[in-house]
Specification:
single chain; 328 residues; alpha+beta; SH3 type barrels; Alpha-Beta Plaits; 4 domains; 5-stranded antiparallel sheet; 3-stranded antiparallel sheet; 7 helices; 45% helix; disordered C terminus
């Protein structure tokens, strides 16, 4: 063998991987490949057994977490000599990550909190900070909402997807629509004129509310009994109620009733349809709306009232008639 050939052979042999390193690389590839194949096999079985989207999602996310955790442990065991040095390695790694990657570490801590404590799960409707929507995904660094509300009325979907860092679970106020009660209280305000028979109108509204939400009260009672095992929830009346209040423009009658979480707009539509139909049959009930009225004291039996020198917005004539504008 010539000098040049010997030099090339020596250089190639010097830079080639050692048998030990090759064995570790091969073992790592085999572990990752086996875990990936097992995950695909299990998911294929799950897909064949069920078509429920929620069940498939939970299986997929759970298998992903388990596969990643097993992969890190098994591959780490291949590269780290013995488990006795693994805690030290993980401790040093965690300390370095906590300093260099504060926000990502906070998001991972938030993910652990979400997975362990379950303040919300996929499918729940939540409000966190200024964002409201249905949870459609939870990942290690962020969770995803299908946004509702914003420029759309009555908690309807906007079509936008919002990605929120998991760390916000520690700093923002969280409201969960779906945990516990499974129903929300909704109100429909109906304003009738002062001249209307408001007692009759109140009775009509009460009958409509009872008809459209009667089945929810019985179901809600069962839900409260189940929820009371976890949360301190007290409700004495679950049946619809109509409250009365006087406003500047008329008598305000407010229906308060239970509705299902995602049927708020539908329930309002049904109730308003019944209200319009029933009020149309009554000649003594009218909706109140912004109007202007001209009134004359002589027609109301108030002629001859002494003129007032105050500036109250009313023009008074010499014959005792008052002319003005009243905006109810």
């Amino acid at each position: 063998m010539g000098p040049i050939q010997y030099g090339v052979y020596t250089s190639f042999h010097h830079h080639s991987l050692s048998p030990e390193l090759q064995a570790k690389l091969l073992a790592s590839v085999v572990i990752i490949l086996i875990l990936w194949l097992l995950c695909r096999l299990i998911m294929r079985i799950v897909w064949r057994q069920t078509e429920d989207v929620r069940t498939r999602y939970i299986w997929r996310k759970t298998l992903t977490y388990i596969t990643i955790a097993l992969g890190m442990i098994l591959v780490g065991h291949v590269w780290v000599k013995g488990f006795e040095s693994l805690p030290t390695f993980l401790g040093l790694l965690s300390a370095g990550l906590a300093i260099a990657l504060k926000d990502p570490v906070t998001n991972v801590a938030g993910w652990i909190f979400i997975v362990m404590q379950k303040p919300f799960t996929p499918g729940d409707r939540i409000e966190i900070g200024d964002n409201t929507g249905d949870v459609i995904d939870i990942r290690m660094f962020q969770f995803t909402l299908m946004e509702i509300g914003n420029w759309v009325d009555a908690d309807q979907s906007t079509g936008r997807i919002i990605h929120i860092p998991n760390g916000r679970i520690f700093t923002e106020t969280l409201a969960n629509y779906s945990k516990g009660f499974h129903y929300i209280w909704n109100e429909v305000a109906v304003l009738v004129t002062f001249e209307s028979d408001w007692k009759k109108a109140k009775g009509i509204l009460r009958d409509i509310a009872n008809k459209d939400s009667e089945h929810l009260s019985k179901s809600a009672e069962r839900k409260i009994k189940e929820t009371s095992k976890k949360f301190m929830i007290f409700y004495t009346h679950l049946t619809p109620t109509v409250y009365t209040r006087v406003e500047d423009s008329g008598v305000l009658l407010t229906i308060r009733y239970l509705c299902e979480l995602r049927h708020r707009r539908d329930s309002e539509g049904v109730i308003w349809g019944d209200i319009l139909q029933e009020f149309a049959r009554c000649t003594d009930i009218d909706f109140a709306y912004p109007t202007q009225r001209r009134y004359d004291n002589r027609c109301e039996g108030k002629a001859g009232i002494e003129r007032s020198s105050g500036n109250d917005g009313i023009k008074r004539s010499e014959d005792g008639a008052d002319y003005g504008i009243m905006e109810p």
